[in-house]
């Protein structure tokens, strides 16, 4: 059993409030990617990059590996034949499998047409093992959509292990048996800075409905939109990316020559 130390003092008090409200936000907006993208510049950029990839590639039986609060579930259930949720813990009531992305033995080999693995690989201690599992569960020719951060503060400690470059991602996935189709940046420095403001602003007001509505408007107009615009105008994302969305195809395993 994990022992949690209760925060003390005024500083710890507002941090506890932000943490509690972030959990409430996840619960209130679970499955609603459209509403979630307006919560911070980081989510805006991530959603704008991953949704087109999912629209173009997601089909058949889809595994959401490390599903968290399943922000894309509603959209995906309208598109794929079957949505399967897997996570290390049940953050919602409709998780199909409780398992680590590093060990998905509960998912049969070559059983999935599509795998989504969003904001997960930074939290696994052995990413090559996880990438191998993503390849194992996919059918040859199946699609993988991965998102990872490059610029992010420490989170979900102590299970925050890695940050990825586009080159590291390519090497990791190619070695696991994937062909890279596209790597897209999701934002840059202004979105990173704006995200910290959004977290505090909404985290301190979400528990009060009137303040929440006001804070959401202020956040959207004064934080999210300006940060996204500044990232686009300054064009720093290539050298200073916020994160990446990768689409890849599972290669057929090597077999004997016919």
Describe this protein with a few key phrases.
258 residues, globular, alpha/beta, disordered N terminus, 42% helix
- As a whole number of angstroms, the C-alpha radius of gyration is 19 Å
Query: Which residue ranges are poorly predicted, with pLDDT under 50 across at least 5 consecutive positions?
Result: 1-8
Strand content: 15-25%
Order of helices and strands: HHHEHEEEHEHEHHE
Number of helices: 8
What is the helical fraction, as a range of percent? 40-55%
Described by strand count, sense and barrel closure, the largest sheet is: 7 strands, mixed
The spatial strand order of the largest sheet comes to: 3-2-1-4-5-7-6
Q: What would you call the structural class? A: alpha/beta
| Averaged pLDDT | 91
User: What is the number of E strands?
Assistant: 7
State the end-to-end CA separation: 55 Å
CA-based shape: globular
